[in-house]
């Protein structure tokens, strides 16, 4: 009997005990800063001379940890271990694999604030965003474990008189999991455990900005009873280790989450068949977005302004789901803009360790420079109505920025900025709104704020995004409730946290026996 799945509740930090518990977790993490983390290959801890130094984006001087860095030789060693461990792991009963995820989830739940505190320090996440990231990681463990249990007997097929036909799912082989910095726990853990619970072995290459939280999660999986060699932890350079493993003939699939540029590169390289390769590689690629908040003319403008602001600036706009463009009906454009500007100016930016700060830093110098250059483009493509300034003297802080009166095809309306910048664009009517909403290469999330039932029904048909929301913001999908993933250049149309996600990590086998 599978227990009912429910998502992990978020922590209410207005409760004194919760606030205190989180402060204690921050103290704990602060006392552990600067530790060294090895690679883990087949259970063996390997320390390398070359390191990735993980720093606090809110304070460039502070080292979160130093992580050993894999090269091609170590990637090859990890591949050999993963290939041989697959032969035993694939024979584990699906329930036994699922049990490891339940145990890992229990460990993570017990150490929830500790993990969130690492996300504050290493990822620059404000408390609430960090708490949501950890909750989502717990959800992925709980959800995929149940999905595996549901799928363990395959799907019934017809049998004629005198035969028994069966249709079952079997694992694929070795998967390369490559994760982004922005959900350093949830996405890294979710993509890893989906592959593992489906019976595959994994080489995990986390983002170079956030390897410490990934190292800590790999430890949790080991504590939960995962056999050595099933999860191999190999942080390293995308260009060196990433390319090597994507090209490797023994790689069976790649599960990538990150930018469009890297996703397209992986997709292309994985298509090439190398000597010794006896399959076509599968690629799951979850990529970028240019997500739109669409505001109709008959709405509560306070609610619309608030939905725009929180979708744009949550975690400094560093979400693939971030509402980085607001398309507003001309009748309410000025009012919504004015309210959004007022609200934006009230948001406090600063060290995310301070609960009072709504927004922390962006992840690194490259992100800071890129976002600031888009703000400069914004000055030519529209008017800066709020924000527009940055300060990278201590950490990478950028004010939440609204650029008003931007044309629908302007760069600010088309390109993923991945920072706290939202462009406002005025629309004539509902037809025009739908036209603008669909005018990018992407198709990840979007939301319509409207009280017009006909428009809501039309948007369900016409607004071409993988995650469409009504009368709310466009971020914050919950595992098992709002399966997540986009269309077009947002990826390979997969849905993380959805009922068919594990299938992407398996192949179906038909057996037919004559009686
Ligand atoms: N669609 C989704 O579900 C989703 C979720 C989160 C983030 N994202 C996207 O991720 C991006 C932000 O994350 P990021 O900055 O970490 O992305 P990124 O593409 O820069 O890096 C992602 C990962 O790819 C690795 N990598 C880099 N070059 C590589 C190569 N040649 N081969 C293999 N791996 C390589 C990186 O080291 C990192 O681990 C944004 O575009 C965002 O929209 C999408
Ligand atoms: N699943 C998250 C976004 C993940 C990408 O960054 C959301 O729905 O906001």
UniProtKB/TrEMBL annotation:
Signal peptide location: none
InterPro entries named among the record's database cross-references: Ald_DH/histidinol_DH, Ald_DH_C, Ald_DH_CS_CYS, Ald_DH_CS_GLU, Ald_DH_N, Aldehyde_DH_dom, Proline_metab_enzyme, RocA
Coiled coil: none
Any GO molecular function: proline dehydrogenase activity
Domain Aldehyde dehydrogenase: 49-510
One Gene Ontology CC term in the entry: cytoplasmic side of plasma membrane
Catalytic activity: L-glutamate 5-semialdehyde + NAD(+) + H2O = L-glutamate + NADH + 2 H(+)
Keywords of the record: NAD, Oxidoreductase
Pathway: Amino-acid degradation; L-proline degradation into L-glutamate; L-glutamate from L-proline: step 2/2
Pfam families, A to Z: Aldedh (PF00171)
GO BP term, pick one: glutamate biosynthetic process
Active-site annotation: 286, 320
Statement: the UniProt record of this protein carries the keyword Oxidoreductase: yes
Gene3D superfamilies associated with the record: Aldehyde Dehydrogenase, Chain A, domain 1, Aldehyde Dehydrogenase, Chain A, domain 2
EC category name: oxidoreductase
Enzyme Commission number(s) of this protein: 1.2.1.88
PROSITE patterns: ALDEHYDE_DEHYDR_CYS, ALDEHYDE_DEHYDR_GLU
Record family assignment: Belongs to the aldehyde dehydrogenase family. RocA subfamily.
Name of this protein: 1-pyrroline-5-carboxylate dehydrogenase
Species whose genome carries this gene: Fictibacillus marinisediminis
Gene that this sequence comes from: pruA
């Amino acid at each position: 009997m599978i227990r009912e799945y429910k998502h992990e509740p978020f922590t209410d930090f207005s409760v004194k005990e919760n606030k205190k518990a989180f402060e204690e977790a921050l103290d704990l993490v602060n006392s552990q800063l600067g530790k060294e983390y090895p690679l883990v290959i087949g259970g063996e801890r390997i320390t390398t001379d070359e390191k990735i130094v993980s720093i606090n984006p809110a304070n460039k001087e502070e080292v979160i940890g130093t992580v050993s860095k894999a090269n091609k030789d170590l990637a090859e060693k990890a591949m050999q271990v993963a290939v041989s461990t697959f032969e035993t792991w694939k024979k584990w009963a699906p329930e036994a694999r699922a049990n490891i995820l339940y145990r890992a989830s229990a460990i993570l739940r017990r150490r929830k604030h500790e993990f969130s505190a690492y996300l504050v320090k290493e990822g620059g996440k404000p408390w609430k965003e960090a708490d949501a990231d950890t909750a989502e990681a717990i959800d992925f463990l709980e959800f995929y474990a149940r999905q595996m249990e549901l799928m363990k007997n395959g799907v019934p097929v017809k049998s004629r008189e005198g035969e028994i036909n069966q249709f079952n799912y079997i694992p694929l082989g070795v998967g390369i999991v490559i994760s982004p910095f922005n959900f350093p726990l949830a996405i890294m853990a979710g993509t890893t455990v989906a592959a593992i619970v489906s019976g595959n072995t994994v080489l995990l290459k986390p983002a170079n900005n956030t390897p410490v939280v990934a190292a800590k999660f790999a430890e949790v999986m080991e504590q939960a009873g995962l056999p050595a060699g099933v999860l191999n932890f190999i942080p390293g350079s995308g260009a060196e280790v990433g390319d090597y493993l994507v090209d490797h003939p023994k790689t069976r699939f790649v599960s990538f989450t990150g930018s469009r540029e890297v996703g397209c590169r992986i997709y292309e390289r994985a298509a090439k068949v190398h000597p010794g390769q006896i399959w076509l590689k599968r690629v799951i690629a979850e990529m970028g977005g240019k997500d739109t908040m669409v505001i109709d003319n008959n709405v509560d403008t306070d609610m619309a302004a608030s939905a725009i602001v929180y979708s744009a600036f949550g975690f400094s706009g560093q979400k693939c789901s971030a509402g980085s463009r607001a398309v507003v009906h001309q009748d309410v454009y000025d009012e919504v803009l004015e309210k959004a500007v007022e609200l934006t100016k009230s948001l406090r930016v600063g060290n995310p360790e301070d609960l009072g700060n709504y927004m922390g830093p962006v992840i690194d110098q490259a992100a800071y420079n890129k976002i600031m250059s888009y703000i400069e483009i914004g000055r030519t493509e529209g008017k800066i109505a709020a924000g527009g300034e940055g300060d990278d003297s201590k950490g990478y802080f950028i004010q939440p920025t609204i650029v008003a009166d931007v044309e629908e095809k302007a760069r600010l309306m088309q390109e993923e900025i991945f920072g706290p910048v939202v462009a406002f664009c005025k629309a004539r009517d509902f037809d025009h709104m739908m036209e603008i909403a669909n005018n990018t290469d992407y198709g990840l999330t979007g939301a319509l704020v409207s009280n017009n039932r006909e428009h809501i029904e039309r948007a369900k048909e016409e607004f071409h995004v993988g995650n469409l929301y009504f009368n709310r913001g466009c971020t914050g999908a919950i595992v098992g409730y709002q399966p997540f993933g986009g269309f077009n250049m947002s990826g390979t149309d997969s849905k993380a946290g959805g009922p068919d996600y594990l299938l992407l990590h398996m192949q179906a086998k038909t057996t037919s026996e004559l009686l």
